[in-house]
């Protein structure tokens, strides 16, 4: 048995801000994917995933039937038969490993599921997001439901506010373009829950709250608008401001060894870095107007281009 593939995602803009109603833009990233599988001779990795799935099934049984119901007979049988999530998506890297698993389970076992083929009204998207938020909370305490939604639909998603999301189109890539969005491997895993706790603790401070509203959210919203309009000049201006605000106010979310590199990008304008997901490790997202310059400046690090301008 092998189920359909579900892809990783990248939240281009909106990390932390969407908790407080900023705009956000999330795109599928097809480089990584995962699928549900059963093998005759499972590896240790597969056995570990299967154990985690057993706990997940128990958790799902406790969710409200009014929200979502599953065919637990079939699901339990498959899990007992050794089903696991076969995934190339790195865990703790901010690219949605648990989101893809949630999407795969919903797709295969949910009763009366909302499908990708029907007319996806705002109500249906919000309902899916709510279901996925409840399901994914098993993995890291509190989830927005966006990662699984992105993985399930395999479409870019524009977040206008908490209660206003829509599937959107993004400008098509210029394959020969010098400008690029890239992922930088921090070499360490990030844990979502502790980072969100630090953020929530900081939110008790009035200075932090007004910085979030007047600077962080302002630049995030502008970046989303620029990206969707294809206004590259303005996008880089706003991304630079956003990168600066993050360096000054989100230091605990940036792995220490990257503080200098982050500042260097702002000083030289060769590249601008921002958080990818909650930070603390995993991937860092980079934007550059000249990918060759960025590669040269960051040659000591692993860099993956995800989008060309």
Provide a quick synopsis of the model.
The protein contains ten helices and nine strands. It is an alpha+beta fold. The strands form two sheets. Strands 1, 2, 3, 4 and 5 form a five-stranded antiparallel sheet that branches.
Detailed description of the structure:
- By secondary structure, the chain is an alpha+beta fold.
- The chain has helices at 44-61, 72-80, 97-109, 122-140, 146-153, 192-202, 206-229, 232-249, 259-268, 291-297; strands at residues 6-13, 24-37, 84-87, 157-161, 164-167, 180-185, 272-275, 283-288, 303-308.
- Strands 1, 2, 3, 4 and 5 form a 5-stranded antiparallel β-sheet that branches. Strands 7-8-6-9 form a 4-stranded antiparallel β-sheet.
- A hairpin with a 2-residue loop joins strand 4 and strand 5 (164-167).
- Helix 4 packs across helix 5 (146-153) and helix 7 runs antiparallel to helix 8.
- The termini are far apart.
